[in-house]
Design brief:
Elements lengths: L13 E6 L16 E2 L1 H16 L5 E3 L4 E2 L5 E7 L5 E12 L2 E13 L10 E3 L6 E3 L6 E3 L11 E4 L10 E10 L4 H13 L3 E12 L4 E13 L2 E15 L6 E11 L1 H17 L1 E2 L3
Antiparallel strand pairs: 1-7, 2-4, 3-5, 5-6, 6-7, 7-8, 8-9, 9-17, 10-11, 11-12, 12-16, 13-14, 14-15, 15-16
Length: 285
């Protein structure tokens, strides 16, 4: 069988909690300003909720502050586990009434493993059929897929410095397929999926690599998407990685890793993408 997705217990935590001790500052005129949640309150209540959900207390929780106690306001926080691993999470105010703020905590899918000798600062994605680990190049940062409308992705990283009309990004998805199904079928399906929402989808060069048990495929794709009333032309480099199921030879896990960028961004970032792919491996390998 595929190695089970060893999700860190804290990653699966998703809690709603009520804060009863929100602070309210006072203006010089004596009128109360907008109520806020202090840094200490965010960290303390987040720690309590995550501990309850995961069954273990994190080594530390870091949140910014203060946060306005207003529906829709959110803050990004970081959790560090006892083993040195870390994960980000988002705290969002869902309601505020009579001095009590109700918060929702959404924990990221990406877990950053503790640095170990010979591995450096590796990150882990455990929500794929075969969990993987990798290292992001400098200048890239991970973001929760929901924040960039990529709910179907297991992992998303963006390159903020390239955000001139479009922010270049890397996405990771995965599924399980029949072992006798060639990767070209998964690649063709990716093109069909693009054509459902984009136009001018054009396949460029396609290369097949690897072995029969663990094949690989890359393909370059040009496309255009509607953006702010005009067509935006993009380039994608898609990589498909097949991993055999040692317990069931009839199955294979396929991981898809995609770089999306403007043509002028692509030449600058394709090297980063290639470096990134060279670090991708099964978790613990």
């Amino acid at each position: 069988m595929f190695r089970p997705a060893r999700m860190a217990a804290l990653v699966s935590a998703c809690a709603a909690l009520t804060l009863g001790a929100c602070t309210a500052t006072v203006t010089s005129s004596g009128e109360p300003a907008e109520p806020t949640l202090t840094k200490h309150e965010l960290e303390e209540r987040s720690t309590e909720a995550l501990t309850e959900m995961a069954g273990q207390r994190p080594a530390s929780v870091e949140c910014p502050g203060p946060l306005a106690a207003k529906q829709g306001e959110s803050a990004r926080c970081d959790l560090t586990a006892e083993d040195g691993g870390s994960v980000g999470f988002t705290v969002t105010v869902t309601s505020y009434d009579k001095g009590k703020a109700k918060l929702d905590i959404q924990v990221d899918d990406e877990v950053k493993a503790a640095p170990t000798e010979g591995k450096g600062n590796m990150s882990t994605v455990s929500t794929l059929p075969v969990p993987i680990e990798f290292s992001l190049p400098d200048g890239w940062r991970s973001v929760p897929p929901k924040e960039v409308n990529a709910e179907g992705a297991a992992f998303v990283a963006v390159h903020p410095a390239s955000s001139k009309g479009f922010t270049a990004n890397i996405t990771i998805t995965g599924d399980v397929r029949s072992a006798d199904e060639p990767l070209t079928r998964a690649a063709d399906q990716a093109l069909d999926d693009l054509r459902a929402g984009a136009s001018d989808v054009e396949l460029g060069k396609r290369n097949e690599v690897g072995t029969d048990d663990n094949p690989g495929l890359t393909q370059a794709v040009r496309l255009s998407i509607p953006y702010e009333g005009k067509q935006l032309y993009l380039v994608q480099l898609q990589a498909f990685i097949g991993m055999a199921d040692t317990g069931d030879p009839s199955r294979r896990a396929v991981t898809q890793v995609v770089l999306s960028a403007l043509p002028e961004q692509f030449d600058q970032l394709v090297g980063d993408f290639q470096d990134f792919l060279s670090t991708v491996r099964p978790e613990g390998a």
